[in-house]
Design brief:
- The complex is a heterodimer of chains A (318) and B (226).
- With 318 residues, chain A is mainly alpha-helical.
- Chain A is built from 12 helices and 3 strands; from the N terminus they run ααβαβααβααααααα.
- Chain A folds into 2 domains: 183 residues, no CATH class; 89 residues, Alpha-Beta Plaits (2-Layer Sandwich).
- A 3-stranded antiparallel beta sheet of chain A has the order 1-3-2, with helices on both faces.
- Chain A is elongated.
- The two termini of chain A are 22 Å apart.
- In chain B, the strands form 2 sheets. In chain B, strands 6-7-8-3-9-10 form a 6-stranded mixed beta sheet, with helices on both faces.
- The two termini of chain B are 28 Å apart.
- Chain B is of the alpha/beta class.
- The chains are: A mainly alpha (318), B alpha/beta (226).
């Protein structure tokens, strides 16, 4: 029997693979430069999708947070019962948060909103008792959960505390704005799906472009790979330098991408924020730079190494 | 040492590269395999190196059928067979020194052995002064000498040369043939595939003649007869 080699991954072999990979990258000249450039562009699309996805999600979440259900209670409803009802609602899986607005707080905020309006302030003064009712503002985990939450409220033992409007219906704002909220919910849901699909397609295209770039670079070495095998090099010894080279390509591309993203977001962050409102994407990028750098560097390294792994497999058949 | 047992290689019904070829090569022999282009010389070498599989028959290196070896065993056999090609097939991004050293690195030799043996072999092929040149900076003859240095650096049991002088002028041709003879004298079996009549006739060694994939002659001190 032939003695199987045991040197595949020993220290000296690893050092040789590492040295060979680094040398190969620097001697690669134009091919190395072209590979890094194309991979950088792909990574930029990937990074753009990553940051853009967070931005779009931020806008959608911002809109969702602004939509809530308010439940208004009868003037004589005891506060402790309303607070018990609040606890019940908080334990509902569809509810994100519930805030209690007391009668006093409601009056205070009304007065605050109409500070300069003397007519309204005088009208309030003429009413002896506080005319405002206490209410609960409920945020749902997503806008399509409002229907379920409203049903939960209507079926609750505390529903008798809820005030009745002039039409004879309970004062639950969802029922009053049901159609508009459902439309908004649909728009947000479709927006999320479109955003997710577009991100997925763009990321996939970026990955394919990067993989093909590495594959073309390795295709140029296919004859040399065959010779290395005929000279008696093991598969790992041949593949290793290509993986190291892929790692370097991916790492440098990730650094270029980070620099490019920084520059692009620096110039556009403020403008996008004022155009679409809400999140300043540049501020978000800078405050999360460590996590984004980590994701891009790991993605770049994985992209380079895995592309080289698949591409060399194709030619390691002699 | 090497045994071809009823080996056939059929690419298609109209393209039969080798047809029921059997022969043996003993240790320290110098065997020339001759034939016109398309006779099956290169296919025979590819089968020995397990670069291709035979349609039928077996190729043995010592007791090992080379086509039944797995991907970990095959490199170990290939390290015992040095190979030289007509088109040199050097690693373009490595210098002459690094090309020769690559074979030793692949065999797991130590850095000390590499630093000691590579200059010695480059000296033997007369290329010490071009050790740090890349292949594109070398002439055809120089490239072929680097290829021979790479093939013999690991002291293989067999050196296989597939048309090694096909791209060389007469002066370089004889230098390469002299090198192969020297390697053989030092104890390495040499298999030379060529269609150069002048080279074969002057060697006066064993000649195996192929014609249209069939082995038609096997002469101990043969000449190029076709």
């Amino acid at each position: 029997m032939i003695k199987k080699e045991n040197m595949s991954y020993n220290k000296i072999t690893f050092q040789r693979i590492l040295k060979s990979g680094i040398t190969k990258f620097f001697r690669g000249g134009l091919i190395s430069v072209a590979t890094v450039l194309v991979m950088s562009l792909s990574m930029l699309v990937f990074g753009g999708v990553l940051v853009g996805g967070i931005f779009v999600n931020g806008i959608i979440s911002g809109v969702e947070d602004k939509v809530d259900i308010s439940v208004y209670f009868k003037l004589d409803s005891p506060e402790e019962k309303i607070l018990s009802f609040k606890e019940d609602l908080e334990s509902n899986i569809n509810v994100k948060s519930v805030s209690y607005v007391s009668k006093e707080k409601a009056l205070e905020s009304f007065l605050g909103r109409h500070k300069g309006d003397t007519l309204i302030l005088r009208s309030i003064e003429t009413v002896e008792n506080n005319p405002f009712s206490a209410n609960l503002d409920i945020n749902a985990k997503s806008t399509d959960k409002f229907e379920d939450i409203t049903r939960f409220i209507e079926a609750s033992a505390y529903s008798s505390l809820i005030d009745i409007d002039s039409m004879g219906k309970q004062k639950i704002t969802f029922r009053q704005n049901e159609e508009a909220i459902n439309k908004l919910s649909n728009v947000l849901s479709v927006s999320r799906k479109i955003g997710f699909s577009v991100s997925g397609i763009l990321a996939l295209i970026a990955l394919m472009v990067a993989y093909n770039t590495v594959r073309v670079a390795i295709y140029n070495s296919k004859d040399e790979i065959a010779v290395m095998q005929l000279v008696g090099a093991s598969r790992s010894f041949i593949r290793g330098p290509f993986l190291i080279e892929g790692l370097i390509h991916g790492f440098i591309s990730a650094v270029f991408t980070l620099l490019a993203l920084y520059g692009i977001l620096f110039w556009t962050g403020e403008r996008i924020a004022s155009a679409f409102g809400g999140l300043n994407i540049y501020t978000y990028f800078v405050s999360n730079i460590l996590q984004i750098s980590f994701i891009l560097l790991v993605a770049g390294a994985l992209l380079g190494v895995l592309s080289a792994q698949f591409a060399t497999k194709r030619y390691l058949k002699v | 040492m090497i045994y071809f047992d009823k080996v056939s290689k059929v690419y298609s019904p109209t393209s039969i590269a080798l047809d029921d070829v059997s022969f043996t090569v003993a240790p320290n022999e110098f065997v020339s395999i001759v034939g016109q282009s398309g006779a099956g010389k290169s296919t025979l070498i590819k089968l020995l190196l397990a670069e291709e599989k035979p349609t039928s028959g077996n190729v043995f290196f010592e007791s090992h059928d080379v086509h039944t070896l797995d991907q970990k065993e095959l490199p170990l056999i290939r390290r015992r067979i040095g190979i030289v090609f007509q088109d040199y097939r050097l690693l373009s991004h490595k210098t002459a020194f690094e090309n020769v050293a690559f074979a030793m690195e692949a065999s797991g030799k130590s850095d000390e052995e590499i630093q000691r043996d590579v200059p010695h072999v480059l000296e033997l092929v007369g290329l010490m002064d071009k050790a740090w040149h890349f292949p594109h900076e070398l002439s055809g003859g120089e490239k072929q000498r680097v290829a021979i240095a790479r093939a013999i650096i690991v002291r293989p049991d067999v050196l296989v040369a597939d048309e090694p002088t096909g791209n060389l002028d007469p002066k370089n041709t004889w230098e390469i043939i002299n090198l192969l003879e020297k390697v053989n004298v030092l104890g390495t079996t040499v298999i030379l595939a060529t269609h150069d009549k002048g080279v074969i006739d002057s060697l006066k060694k064993r000649v195996i003649t192929l014609d249209k994939g069939k082995l038609i002659r096997d002469d101990q001190k043969g000449k190029y007869v076709l």
